[in-house]
Specification:
Length: about 180
């Protein structure tokens, strides 16, 4: 019996890896984020002010630019680069930055590290439902269905069942339960 549970959990984790869907946060500037991914070589980010690719250094870019670049790199699957860029943020308590640090670590296989970033982001902004969606997905990755369902209930409480975050996490939970 125990073997079957482990095999199902492993299968669900494998399936989740292939189901990752890029989600763009509301209000993100995709024009500039696309620049980092499409025009800049590895280790560089798009500087909105200079309108060119630059090697990021602490204090050189504003946190919005760091977020845009880190978000774009994470969505492009360039997780280690995203972590390096996001770590340059002056405001280490920006929930957006913490969210994509969590996302990048989780997708790099460091789920426990990702969980810590998600929890910190929620401590700062408990209503940040995108974090709750990603946190729910992380719970599914480690086989914690109850933890994912708890995040789904929190999203429903804040935005109802019609939100994108609710729909995405509900779909992931449904798939997890069927596999």
């Amino acid at each position: 019996m125990h073997k079957r549970v482990l095999i199902r959990a492993a299968g669900a984790l494998l399936a989740l890896q292939f189901m990752a869907v890029p989600v763009f946060a509301a209000g993100s500037d995709t024009t500039n984020t696309d620049q980092t991914v499409t025009k800049c070589k590895k280790g560089e980010v798009w500087d909105k002010k200079k309108k060119k690719c630059v090697a990021p250094q602490e204090g050189m870019l504003d946190d919005d630019s760091i977020y845009d670049a880190g978000h774009a790199l994470a969505m492009a699957g360039r997780y280690d680069e995203a972590i390096a860029v996001l770590s340059l943020a002056a405001n280490k308590q920006d929930p957006r930055i913490l969210n994509y640090l969590g996302y990048s670590h989780r997708h790099s296989g460091r789920v426990t590290v990702g969980l810590g970033y998600y929890e910190e982001a929620l401590r700062i902004d408990p209503n940040y439902t995108l974090v709750r969606e990603y946190l729910g997905e992380a719970h599914l990755q480690i086989g914690d269905l109850a933890g994912a369902q708890q995040q789904l209930a929190e999203i429903e409480k804040r935005t109802g069942k019609g939100s994108r975050e609710y729909g995405m996490l509900a779909e992931q939970i449904d798939h997890f339960m069927r596999s």
